[in-house]
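Data availability (excerpt). The following record was deposited with the supplementary files.
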Amino acid sequence: SKTFFRAYQELNDQDFFEVKDEDINKMNLADKANLFFKIGSFQDITFNLAERQIIDMISAAETFEDAVDAARHLYEFCKQEQKKEAPAFNPPPKGEQDQAGGTEESPDQGEGTAEAEKQEPQEEESYGGTAEVEPKVTTDELLESKLKDLISEAAGKNHYVEIPKVNLETIIASNEDIHNLIDNHHARHLENGYTNNHDENYKKFKRDAQKEVNYLVKEFECKKAADSYARAATSRTGVLDCTKLHTYKYNEDLFKKVTTFPDGKNHGLVFVLDWSGSMQYVLHDTIKQLFNLIWFCKKVNIPFEVYAFSNEWNGYRWDDNGNHLEKISHYEEREGLLAIDGDFTMMNLLSSKVKDIDKQMLNIWRLVESMYTCYPYAMSTPRRLSLSGTPLNEALISLRQILPMFQRENKVQKVQCIVLTDGEANHIPYHVVVKRPWEEEPYLGCNHLHPNTFIRDRQTGNTYRVPYRWHEFTSTLITNLKDRFPNTNFIGIRVLESRDSGAFMRLYMD
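Predicted structure:
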């Protein structure tokens, strides 16, 4: 009841029933009853004694028969009231009738006209009375009209869009290019006389973290051994065991046995790191946790890749003359595809394929610690590696090509994909062709997604309705990834302040 109360209050504030300039108490009882039971709490509606009896009858109705009985009484009451208010019809004098209607028979009319007059209804029968007219309920007709408008506006036409197949050569910033940029920037930093303790802090953290990493390795090996033992199978070989021949009188099993341990599935890890501006003061701690996992992967020989999603790497590109280059197109743009901005990049920060991984981890440490400390931001971070927006949804779309590539290159059966982020991203628009009056050719523009849009995946045959709430769009993309890659385990690590945990839980949980 509280929900209905608030909803009708909102409709009343919008003047949904268009009664702002009307005197409700002068309406017929059907209209007054309709408004009374909808917005009566917000309008001053009065009833006389006879009207109040019918209103009470409507209020007391509990069964369908009660409702029909109340409707019948309301109908008869409105009909009687309408007869009282209708003006009586007085016929004009005989002479005026003859002049206006030509009722006198002319010589040319003959018997055909007289016969027609007999068949036509005679208005004289209603002289002095009122015509039978059904009571009209204007508020009900208005409600039907408004609801149709709302439905047509909300429903509209369904739109189907698809996720583009992106070009990984333009999407991924190579590991080599990133670390060459960091090395050159660090060298210039030292030449200009700036000093820092980044390298010493990294060595100390690495030394302190080894105990925790070794514990992770121990737990992993124990679990792996336990799983292997649980899957062990013992079978007969068909070859007699000579050591058991003397027991043939009471032992039926004289054959040798063999125990096989099936090989476990080999795993790989793909890390997706949020490189947005809001991560500045938590990125340092996030990198520490990430490094622990990387050292763990190295010790147990698990291949891994670390990507950071950003808008800056491609957004700040210059040629040799210092001219800003145009945006990159990551796919063949056409109508009906989700639009991926050309500035979006997946920066390959770290990789298990690199020999000197420790040097690269030191580079990332220098970069992140300079963001966290009080050093001048512009001097300590290359522009193309600075923090940016949050293209999280674009990163999830790029995983549709990155995951199978990683699985193919490393020959792994099971992939763990870990996403570390501190927030959601906005909806992604989709391409639509429009005709602009000042151009001869149609223009390929973009439109915002709405709840009547469906994402279609032709590979799996699934469709996904675009949710209304912006934060649920990311969940939709993850659902599509899980449908596409059933052997991939997706893990989301949410980085947030303790004060934000309540809001986060209310957003995603009942």
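Summary of structural features: The chain has a mean pLDDT of 82.
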